[in-house]
Amino acid sequence: MLILEAEDLAKRFGNVQAVDGISLRVGQGEIAGLLGPNGAGKSTTLHMLLGLITPDSGTVRMFGLDLARHRTEVLSQVNFSASYLGLPGVLHVREVLDAFARLYGLRRPRERVGEIIDLLEIGPLARRKVIELSSGQHTRVQLAKALINEPRLLILDEPTAALDPDAGDRIRGLLVRVARETGTALLITSHNMREVERMCDRIHFVSAGRIIAQGTATELADDFGVDDLEEVFLKVAREGAVPA
Ligand SMILES: Nc1ncnc2c1ncn2[C@@H]1O[C@H](COP(=O)(O)OP(=O)(O)OP(=O)(O)O)[C@@H](O)[C@H]1O
């Protein structure tokens, strides 16, 4: 079943054509990666999918519903995490999660907050104020918030960028488990090519606001005639290469 269908999205900021006709499909339980050099248009694309930025043209459908016409219904089944999103610093971690559980109108908010604290292994942080957290701890709390409503689509902008290798590995394992066990579709951006190779079923390579290649990590390496995704990335970023 298709969870996300974006068709021909475009967005210009002044003289900059940030996104120039991006189309994407993500299925149930699929982990999709959006890759590309700095400034390629990844975050702008994610923000259009989340209804945070209005596209100049193009359409977004989620769960078969048009985002522009069914915004509340669609977005209640989606969640998002990014390190640049703030959380209220004066609140304790558990208070933040309680507040989001109520915002999403969950039926048993307390139980869900307890479950999510266990899932993300953030029990020791529950009584700490958000402002006191390290960036890696903050990232884990952001992910807890992002999973709290059991989203059908989870959009993550560089989910493990602030995590140490051990925490990053655990979070990657957790996200893959969530996708496989619950059918949640994941769309992630990352500059960590090993992470993308390990996690993503399908990769969409963005350059200058367009998708220039799509496929599994192996397919992309074959298309570009190189050994791995890191080399694909370097070819695109340094030589502006497109697949053979
Ligand atoms: N609000 C804005 N106003 C003006 N220009 C913007 C705005 N947001 C993004 N841009 C520009 O649009 C282009 C795409 O930016 P975007 O943040 O989508 O890239 P990105 O692929 O997410 O990059 P990164 O990997 O660095 O996060 C860039 O040239 C950026 O400067």
UniProtKB/TrEMBL annotation:
- Which cellular components does GO assign to this protein? plasma membrane
Under the heading InterPro entries, the entry gives: AAA+_ATPase, ABC_transporter-like_ATP-bd, ABC_transporter_ATP-binding, P-loop_NTPase
Tell me the PANTHER family matching this sequence.
ABC TRANSPORTER ATP-BINDING PROTEIN, ABC TRANSPORTER ATP-BINDING PROTEIN NATA
Q: Which residues form a coiled coil?
A: none
Report if keyword Transport is assigned: yes
The UniProt GO MF terms for this protein read: ATP binding; ATP hydrolysis activity
**Which GO BP terms, alphabetically?**
response to antibiotic
Task: Give the record's family classification.
Answer: Belongs to the ABC transporter superfamily.
Question: Where do the ABC transporter domain residues begin and end?
Answer: 4-233
Give the protein name, as stated in the record: ABC transporter
Q: Which UniProt keywords apply?
A: Antibiotic resistance, ATP-binding, Nucleotide-binding, Transport
**What does the record say about its membrane topology?**
Peripheral membrane protein
Q: What is its main location?
A: membrane
Highest taxon of the lineage: Bacteria
Subcellular location field? Cell membrane
